[in-house]
Amino acid sequence: MDHPLDRPVWRALTSRQRGLALGDGRALRFAPAYGPFGAAADGSEASLAALAALIPAEGGVAVVEAARTPLPPGVAVAQEAELTQMTMAGLAADGGAGGAARFEIVDLGEADAAEMRVLAELTRPGPFSSLTHRLGDFVGVKQAGRLVAMAGERMKPEGFTEVSGVCTHPGSRGRGYAAGLIRVVAGRILARGEIPFLHSYATNLGAIGLYESLGFVVRRPVLMRVVTKAL
Q1: Could you tell me which of 125, 128, 196, 191 has the C-alpha nearest to residue 156?
Q2: Whether 89 and 129 share a structural domain
Q3: Do 65 and 51 touch, CB atoms closer than 8 A?
Q4: What is the dihedral of CA 10, 54, 116, 173, to 10 degrees?
Q5: Shortest CA distance to 10 belongs to which of 28, 25, 26?
Q6: Spans in the chain with pLDDT lower than 50
Q7: 104 Cβ partners below 8 Å, 6+ apart?
Q8: What pLDDT, on a 0 to 100 scale, did the predictor assign at position 93?
Q9: Which residue, 67, 78, 58, is CA-closest to 40?
Q10: What residues pair up with 161 in beta bridges, in sequence order?
Q11: Which secondary-structure segment (H or E) carries 69?
Q12: For burial by CB atoms within 10 Å, which of 52, 56, 140, 222 has the most?
């Protein structure tokens, strides 16, 4: 059997996040308001056709898997990127990346949703839709009442939770906000008895180095492909 993180989207949508799924036993995707991620059950013709049926007329479905799986006929690849998948057994003993945060970290909720979306659209940490903030707990840093950094949770295969949505306003970078927020998010995941994991673009060596300093280790490369309907 494949490792759960080899097919994190499918494993999340067939377990802890099945209530957010659209589709059937052949293919599933997150409801669009939560994000664009989807997956076919396998490489059969029926499963691939079911995945193609979940692609919206405008926009696409993001497939994240370890193997270069077949794609449905009649689709186009709008984006393809190699990601580095990392997991954490425990936070770095010295706190990593400068140790404990020296700034206030606050829990974020519905009242912060609009600001979270604006920050995500400005910084592009990855897909962030209108209800992405409801996928898990999010924390942030505010300056003068304005949200300037955040991090939270996204996909939740059984036994694992993804750290995601990590971003800092360009005018507030270099202050250790990302490291402090990741420590809180990952620490809470570990406290629940789950394993934190995350994805980074393989070319983003600076981010990977930060994650390693916090206690994450590289698990394996995975491939992300955003598929759209062919013209």
Answers
A1: 196
A2: yes
A3: no
A4: 70
A5: 28
A6: none
A7: 141, 142
A8: 77
A9: 67
A10: 196
A11: none
A12: 140
The answer for residues whose C-beta is within 8 angstroms of residue 6's C-beta and 6 or more apart is 65, 66, 67, 220, 222
Asked whether the beta carbons of 125 and 116 are under 8 A apart, the reply is no
Q: Residue 121 maps to which CATH number?
A: 3.40.630.30
Instruction: Clarify whether residues 171 and 133 are in a common domain.
Output: yes
Contact 103, 140 (CB under 8 A): no
Q: Say if residue 79 is exposed, middle or buried (CB neighbours under 10 Å; 0-12, 13-18, 19+).
A: exposed
SS3 (DSSP) at 76: strand
Give the C-alpha separation, 37 to 191, whole Å.
Answer: 27
Query: Are 159 and 87 contacting, i.e. CB atoms less than 8 angstroms apart?
Result: no
Pairing relation of β-strands 27-30 and 21-23?
Answer: antiparallel
The pLDDT of residue 37 is 98
Distance, CA of 136 to CA of 134 (rounded, Å): 5
Q: Name beta bridge partners: 83.
A: 201, 222
pTM here is: 0.94
